[in-house]
Design a protein that fits this description.
With 554 residues, the protein is α/β, with parallel strands linked by helices. The protein folds into 3 domains: 220 residues, FAD/NAD(P)-binding domain (3-Layer(bba) Sandwich), CATH 3.50.50.60; 92 residues, D-Amino Acid Oxidase, subunit A, domain 2 (D-Amino Acid Oxidase, Chain A, domain 2), CATH 3.30.9; 102 residues, Glutaredoxin (3-Layer(aba) Sandwich). Helices cover 28% and strands 27% of the residues. It contains 15 helices and 24 strands. The strands form 4 sheets. Strands 1, 2, 8, 9, 10, 11, 17 and 18 form an 8-stranded mixed β-sheet that branches. Helix 2 packs parallel to helix 5.
Length: 554
């Protein structure tokens, strides 16, 4: 039991397959009700897809576990209707500081540019996020959740997957057109199917201590190398909700996990860090090691892997849950198109390709961080310490300091779903880039990303929306009637577009600047808010070709 949180207990309900003594079939089954599995199921259900979510437990995660949720993840959660409670409950922060010994050597700002709705990071215990996601899932009639339903066998052929599910009332059988596996790093289903996952186990141990205390430290990420209170090791401090502070102590590979978790050993470490006068209570303690590894591919016939079941990284950089939720953001719209018969099943190959690329990027950054934090030789440690000493005075050395490159979305610039530029543009919003947010007036909110949904979107820019002629307005509006609909929106500095088109007013000029907009410039945006194509002039035929390419129909 925790001092600051009471675990919910979700009801087990006897499945209809057992009540009616029959097998069941669902178009999509998701296994695992952690943040990633819940996000996948919610995203599909919001698109009107009937989906069944199975979990072998009846509560949320034990202990705070995942802590940091990045700006991009918060934007995905916003689209699912869960971002605001996370931000309201959690601790928002943008600044991180790195110390060597007692002195600060480096700091960074995750959101140096103004005009974005969400902060660079929010710290929130994982059990809160899961609780909010379960509450949201219960609002969606297309989504059925079954707790205390444990998948004990999986088989598949070219048409479907077959599951055997164990419950307190006995076992039953389900079939599904598509099985999405979000059952964690040890993934029983991955093992049932005999699938490999390759990578590296890091020979080090870290102690997590969540402590309840009142402290006036700012809501920032603080990381120490070789602090006086924990010599020759590293320490990380984060503030979470409810005055709970996460402290990570590096222990070394020879440390005994069971011994280190005992309060009589944990408390002196914390007192050495905080001082004897600081009052605190232990909330949760764990010792962990970590791995950087991934599956060779994430789609295997009728079975799709997401989150830790597909890839794992070290906790430095907050890339675990963040990358898993971005997996689902990439997969859900593609799977929905396949289910609706609007895209070939081969579109799911692009899910694997794009997210394998993202996983490799995360593993590379995570491995580099880990090698800097835990040098493997006297030479590498001497180099690291020299970098830290130089960083206090020389900017070039600060770029080499690596206490964890924090989670950012992947730029899918090499994706075959992109339409390459034929026109000249400046700025960062190249095909494959994740969208930049910007403040707007009008539409469904006060932010550009808040006006997006799970459809393809076309942004059409003019200085004055009132100058959009009738023929152009009709052609833009007609995009919504295509087999794969595209929602066209006029973005303008002022004015109102014809009635059949929504208008966003870019009063501060942030969209014009960030997207290098000129009169008649267009951006085609994927449902996961990555740029698919852009042009200097609107051409409905080119938009249709780009949509076909982005959905595997080219």
């Amino acid at each position: 039991m925790l001092k600051t949180y009471t675990y919910p207990k979700f009801d087990y309900v006897r499945p209809p397959e057992l009540v009616e003594q029959r097998d069941g079939h669902y178009p999509v089954v998701v296994v695992g009700a952690g943040p990633v599995g819940l996000s996948m199921a919610i995203d599909l259900a919001l698109q009107g897809q009937r989906v069944l979510l199975l979990d072998n437990d009846d509560t949320v995660s034990i202990g705070s576990r995942g802590v940091c949720y990045a700006k991009r993840t918060l934007e995905v959660l916003d689209r699912m209707g869960c971002g605001t409670p996370c931000v309201d409950k959690g601790m928002s922060w943008n600044v991180g500081r790195t110390f060597f010994g007692e002195g600060e050597v480096f700091n960074f700002n995750l959101r140096p540019q103004e005009g974005h709705q969400r902060p660079g990071m929010v710290n929130l215990q994982q059990y809160y996020l899961e609780d909010y996601l379960v509450q949201r899932a219960r609002q969606l009639p297309a989504l059925e959740m079954r707790f205390k339903n444990n998948v004990i066998a999986v088989q598949q052929d070219d048409a479907r997957a077959t599951l055997r599910v164990e419950t307190p009332d006995g076992a039953y059988t389900l079939t599904t057109d598509w099985l999405v596996v979000a059952d964690g790093a040890r993934s029983p289903i991955r093992n049932m199917l005999g699938l490999d996952i390759d990578g590296k186990i890091f020979m080090d141990r870290f102690l997590i201590a969540d402590v309840v205390m009142k402290a006036d430290y700012p809501a920032e990420r603080w990381f120490w190398f070789d602090p006086p209170f924990h010599r020759n090791q590293s320490v990380l401090l984060h503030k979470q909700a409810d005055n709970v502070w996460r402290i990570d102590f590096q222990l070394g590979w020879d440390a005994d996990p069971e011994t280190e978790k005992k309060p009589e050993n944990v408390i002196p470490r914390i007192k050495a860090m905080l001082g004897d006068e600081r009052e605190f209570e232990l909330e949760w303690v764990s010792v962990y090691t970590f791995q950087c590894r991934r599956m060779g591919r994430f789609n295997h016939n009728r079975v799709l892997f997401v989150g830790d079941a597909a890839h794992q990284v070290s906790p430095f950089g907050a890339r675990g849950a963040n990358s898993g939720i971005q997996d689902t953001d990439n997969l859900a719209w593609k799977l929905k198109l396949v289910l609706d018969g609007k895209a070939p099943a081969s579109l799911l190959d692009s899910y694997s390709a794009e997210r394998c690329y993202a996983a490799d990027e995360n593993i590379m950054n995570s491995t580099r961080s880990t090698d800097f934090i835990t040098p493997k030789s006297k030479t590498s440690k001497a180099f690291r310490n020299a970098v830290l000493e130089l960083a206090q005075d020389y900017p070039f050395a600060r770029a080499l300091v690596n206490s964890g490159r924090l989670s950012v979305p992947s730029w899918l610039v090499d994706s075959p779903l992109n339409t390459p530029d034929a026109d000249d543009f400046a700025g960062n919003m190249v095909p494959g880039a994740p969208m930049d947010d910007a403040p707007v007036q009008g539409g469904r909110g006060s932010w550009l990303l808040g006006d997006m949904d799970t459809r393809f979107q076309l942004l059409y820019y003019v200085q004055d929306a009132g100058q959009v002629d009738a023929a152009t307005a009709q052609a833009l509006a007609a995009l919504a009637d295509a087999a794969i609909p595209v929602r066209a929106t006029v973005v303008a500095a002022q004015g109102q577009a014809p009635a059949q088109l929504p208008t966003l007013i870019d009063a501060q000029g942030a969209i014009r600047q960030r997207y290098d907009m000129q009169d008649c410039s267009c951006y085609l945006l994927r449902p996961d808010q990555h740029v698919a194509a852009r042009w200097r002039q609107f051409d409905a035929a080119k938009v249709r070709v780009a949509v076909a390419r982005a959905t595997g129909n080219a």
